[in-house]
Write a structure and sequence with these properties.
Length: 336
Amino acid sequence: MALVTHVTQAHAHHMDSDELRRVIGVASLAPSVHNTQPWQFTVTADGYLEVRADTHRQLRALDPLARQLLVSCGGAIEFARLAIRAAGRACDVDLLPDPGDPRLLAILRPGEACAGTPEEIALVDAAARRRTDRGPYDDNELPPGLLDELRSGVERYGLWLRHIDLPVDRVIVVGALSDAERRLAADPAYVAELKRWTTGEERRDGIPNPTPAWPADRVSDVPLRDFSAQQAHRSTRAGEPPVVERDTLVLLGSVVDDPTAHLATGRALAWLLLRITVSGLAGQPLGQAFDDLAGRVRLGSDLRLIGYPQFLLRMGYGHGAEHTARRRIEDVLVTR
C-alpha cells in the first residue's frame, strides 16, 4: 500500500521550536541535484510544516521543467517525515495541497504520540552519515535480500525498481548516458550553469569536489558524470588492461509522469539511500540520461519499460566521501 499523501481528517499536535528545528535540520540533509538544496520550510500557527520549492535555485539549463527540483524536494519531504516519526509523532503528508500555490509542495502534519519504529529511527540516524560517493567501490556483493527489500520499499511510494544487471541492458544504459552527455556538453548555458555549482569554493551549497581520485588502473563500466562538461572521462595507463568496475545499478520508475510522481521519486529515493547507508553502502546518481526528456524517452523505449524511468543509481561499498555542506537552518526556514 502506498504511503498516505492526502489527509481526510487530522488533529494537530504542536511540536516545540527545538523539535521543529531538529526536523528541519534532518530534512536539510536530503540529497539534491548539484547540491542546490532547492527547498524552503515554514512552520504554521497550527504547528504544521510546509515545504516549498525555492525556484531561485532551479537549474534553468539542466532542469527547465523543474522535474529534478521536485525530485530533490521530495527527498527533503521524506527526510522531514522520518524525523517527525523518529521524534515519536504520527505524521500525515499532504502533497501539492493548493493548486493556487504551485510552490507549496507538501504540508506535514505532526499527530499524536506514536513511537517511531526501529527502522525509522535507524534511517534518521543514518541521515548524517549518508554521502554521495563518486569514487570507486569495492567488489563485495550486496547483502542477501537487500535488492528485494529495496524493491518492496520503493513500491510503498508508488514507484518500481529494476536491477540493471543484464549485459545488453547495461550497454543500453552506457549508450544513453554517453549520448546525453554529448548533448549537454554542446549547450553553452549548461556548461556555464555547471561551472557555477562546481566552483570548488568554500560555500554551503554546490559540489566542492565532483571528481574524486580513482586508482590509475581502475575504471567504471558506465560513464560517470563529467563535471568539466568536456566529456573527459578517465583512461588507464597505455598498454595495461584496466580493472573494470561493474557496480550495482538500479533504476527507479513510475507508472505516470507528473509532479506527484516526481515528488514520489524523491521520497522513494530518500528512503532507499538511507536504507543502503544503514547497511554500510553508498550511492551515486547517474543523472545525465535523465536531464532531458529525450534521454528519458529513449532509455524507456530501449529498455522496453512499462512506465517512465525517473532515476538511475550506482551503489556499492565506497571508501568514504567528503560531506557536502548544507545551508543553515536560518537560510531555509521562512517565517510568516
